[in-house]
């Protein structure tokens, strides 16, 4: 329905807080960038069958024993015009999520914007998105956990540096423009959500990266990329970027006033640093600065230490997956490897508050990063597209069952308003 009054039974109450200080989560893949000059939208909810099987999908989340679900309505179909929202699907879906007692981590923008906005070069996007985020929070006041813009770094890189999605540009000025618009949208959205939910918590699901030089000539390139990887989180958390990044931003169109907008925000106390980790997140750079996947050199826990040392925030592992491989066990091995890294970090006193296998079901065409509409099924889900459990899904269910009651809690920040802390 288009902006109809919210049912009264949704007003003024809250989902029950998790009984544990640790969140076991999964997600419904809702990437929706455009390709082919904006002519084709890669809506993964549609391609993976969620619109037809959403009730079944939510029931599977409960079957796994997950506390939380990364999930959100599609921005391109919900935000119909400035201030005009179609909540018809969201109303039904979130009512069912609430009925089942699943705690949503609401993902409001996942790699794409409505056709009428265009792309991330549009300077109107931040304000339009912030208004939408506030409208969502007003309509669903029981929701506390949010990821306003998913993977801000990857959104900008794939859209305006690699030329793969949305604006499909590949120059530094367009890239900086995408960064400043995406992060500004995230900051303004947090402000709007807090007006309606003052104890909202923002879990920044962001890709964590590491760049390695393969020869002495590639050291400057690796140094630059290892500073650049922090740009979106630095700006989001109001942290001063290093001098090389400051010059890069100003040389490519960011004004001093725009930079100081980010420095002046004070929202970090409402945030959990969500970080995403895949086999492809470490890169080996050659003398020309071109990269290829390095495999795991450091691994999740080592790179997460770097990010935690920089921001000093609680951490949540917000995305990972792996194809099941020819023997069907590679995804399960990866699951236990990620879990071991989390336990190591917690033993060292780093407050890791949750873990996410992303996503609930298999995905489509991620071998080409959605650039080619080939219909290739990526067997990375806890369930296949027929909603049959994969080996990793059964392993994740066992992991949750065995660790839920014995994992020592480190933080109750998911139950206590951070603004009062």
Description of the structure:
The chain has a single domain (8-420), classed as TIM Barrel (Alpha-Beta Barrel). The radius of gyration is 20 Å and the shape is globular. An eight-stranded parallel beta barrel has the order 1-4-7-8-9-12-15-16, surrounded by four helices. The chain has a three-stranded mixed sheet with strand order 11-13-14. Strands 2-3 form a two-stranded antiparallel sheet. The protein is α/β, with parallel strands linked by helices. Mean pLDDT is 92; it is low at 4-20 and 409-421. The chain contains 14 helices and 18 strands.
Provide key terms for this protein.
Glyco_hydro_1; three-stranded mixed beta sheet; eight-stranded parallel beta barrel; alpha/beta; 14 helices; disordered C terminus; Glycosyl_Hydrolase_39; Family 1 glycosylhydrolase
Short characterization:
The protein has 421 residues and is an alpha/beta fold. The chain has a single domain, classed as Glycosidases (TIM Barrel, Alpha-Beta Barrel). The protein is 38% helix and 16% strand.
What is the average per-residue confidence, as pLDDT, rounded to a whole number? 92
Q: Characterize the main sheet.
A: 8 strands, parallel, barrel
At the fourth level of CATH, the homologous superfamily is Glycosidases
Contiguous low-pLDDT stretches (5 residues minimum) are 4-20, 409-421
Beta-strand content bin: 15-25%
The residue fraction in helices comes out at 25-40%
Rounded to the nearest angstrom, the distance between the terminal CA atoms is 38 Å
Task: Provide the domain count.
Answer: 1
* CATH level-1 class: Alpha Beta
| Named CATH topology | TIM Barrel
Overall geometric form: globular
Question: What topology, given as strand order, has the largest sheet?
Answer: 1-4-7-8-9-12-15-16
Total helical segments? 14
CATH architecture verdict: Alpha-Beta Barrel
What class do helices, strands and sheet pairing give?
alpha/beta
Number of strands: 18
The Rg value, from CA coordinates, equals 20 Å
């Amino acid at each position: 329905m288009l902006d109809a009054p919210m049912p009264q039974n949704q007003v003024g109450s809250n989902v029950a807080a998790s009984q544990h200080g640790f969140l076991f989560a999964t997600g419904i893949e809702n990437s929706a960038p455009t390709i082919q000059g904006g002519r084709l939208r890669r809506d993964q909810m549609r391609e993976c069958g969620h619109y037809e099987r959403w009730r079944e999908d939510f029931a599977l989340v409960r079957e796994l024993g997950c506390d939380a679900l990364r999930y959100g309505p599609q921005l391109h179909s919900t935000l119909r015009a400035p201030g005009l929202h179609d909540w018809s699907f969201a109303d039904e879906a979130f009512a069912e999520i609430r009925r089942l007692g699943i705690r949503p981590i609401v993902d409001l923008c996942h790699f794409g914007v409505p056709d009428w906005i265009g792309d991330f070069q549009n300077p109107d996007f931040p304000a339009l998105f912030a208004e939408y985020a506030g409208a969502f929070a007003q309509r669903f006041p029981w929701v506390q956990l949010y990821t306003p813009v998913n993977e801000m770094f990857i959104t900008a890189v794939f859209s305006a540096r690699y030329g793969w999605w949305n604006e499909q540009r590949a120059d530094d000025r367009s890239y900086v423009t995408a960064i400043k618009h995406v992060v500004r949208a995230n900051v303004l959205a947090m402000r709007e959500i807090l007006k309606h939910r003052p104890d909202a918590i923002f879990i920044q699901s962001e890709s964590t990266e590491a760049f390695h030089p393969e020869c002495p000539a590639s050291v400057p390139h690796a140094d630059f990329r290892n500073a650049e990887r922090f740009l979106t989180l630095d700006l989001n958390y109001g942290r001063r970027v290093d001098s090389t990044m400051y010059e890069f931003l100003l040389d490519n169109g960011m004004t001093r006033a725009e930079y100081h907008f980010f420095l002046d925000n004070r929202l970090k106390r409402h945030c959990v640093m969500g970080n995403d980790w895949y086999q492809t997140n470490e890169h080996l750079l050659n003398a020309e600065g071109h990269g290829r996947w390095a495999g795991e050199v450091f691994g999740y826990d080592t790179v997460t230490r770097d990010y935690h040392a920089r921001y000093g925030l609680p951490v949540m592992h917000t995305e990972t997956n792996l194809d099941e491989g020819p023997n069907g066990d590679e995804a399960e091995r990866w699951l236990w490897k990620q879990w071991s890294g989390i336990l190591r970090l917690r033993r060292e006193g780093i407050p890791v508050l949750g873990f996410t296998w992303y996503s609930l079901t298999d995905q489509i065409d991620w071998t080409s990063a959605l650039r080619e509409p080939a219909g290739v099924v990526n067997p990375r889900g806890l369930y296949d597209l027929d909603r049959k459990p994969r080996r990793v899904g059964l392993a994740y269910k066992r992991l949750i069952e065995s660790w839920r009651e014995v994992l020592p809690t480190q933080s109750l920040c998911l139950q206590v308003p951070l603004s009062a802390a």
